[in-house]
Amino acid sequence: MTTIISRKAWGARAPRNRYTVTWAQRTEFFVHHTAGPKTQTIQQIQAFHMGPSRGWSDIGYGHLVDADGKIYEGRGWLVVGAHCPGHNRSGESVAYIGDDDPTPAAKRSIRWLYDEACRRAGKKLKMLGHGQRYATSCPGPKLQAWVNAGMPVEAAEKPAKPAPKPQPTETEAIVKKLPTLKQGDHGWHVKTMHYLLAARDYAVPAEVDDTTFTEQHTNGVKGIQAAAGLKETGVVDGPTWAALLRVA
Ligand SMILES: [Zn+2]
Asked: Does the pLDDT value for residue 177 go beyond 70?
């Protein structure tokens, strides 16, 4: 959830004066940068704007966003700003705290402020970089190109992938391929069963043909089934194959 760090929360100094407009008067949304280091604090920016070199009544911008995407209330919504001559009444404003190196998190927050301003205004505000209405390099080529592109943002988190289909275990996969066997059957699968019985201590005497399902095999299978808690049918079905294959 996106939140705005209020003036009270960051300890803003009171403005020397304050004028407001209505959303009907707001038609634009300006993007700026502070052109300073990313580490500059909101308090330092306010002190600079209210100090002797600027002498403004308050911090210049409506809102500010840092590299982590944290949003600070500057003058706030609908307060006449000091960010772009001739547009301080018509334009909401946000400043990125940094130079020409906007982070994805900062862009997401700037875009969130734009969407929020439009929502409050009940109309689309014109997206503008400071330099589009005043002779300045602000907000820098990267942010300006991003504004020109319509402030696209990627979601902070990729939407969750659908849960992967459960993969059958190796044993289940093998069992699926094995036919049901019963006394009298012949073939390669009978041989598999023959040696699995031996491995599980239900060895059928060596002289017995290992490719034919004999009565001895039936007895061995019933033994495996009894040990596994299965019905003693003597028929090697899926669960019986699983019991034969289980390494325990
Ligand atoms: Zn600017």
From this structure: yes
What are the backbone angles phi and psi of residue 88, rounded to the nearest 5°?
A: -75, -20
CA of 91 to the centre of ligand 1 (A): 12
The residue type found at 109 is S
Cα 28 to ligand 1 centroid, rounded to whole Å: 14
State how far the Cα of 181 lies from the Cα of 192, in Å rounded to an integer. Answer: 11
Rounded CA gap, 103 and 146, in Å?
A: 12
CA 210 to chain CA centroid, nearest Å? 57
pLDDT digits 0-9 by tens, 106-163 = 999 999 999 999 999 999 999 999 999 999 999 999 999 999 999 999 876 566 677 7
Question: What domains are there in the chain, each with its CATH number?
Answer: 4-148 (3.40.80.10), 170-245 (1.10.101.10)
Residue 12: alpha-carbon gap to chain centroid: 34
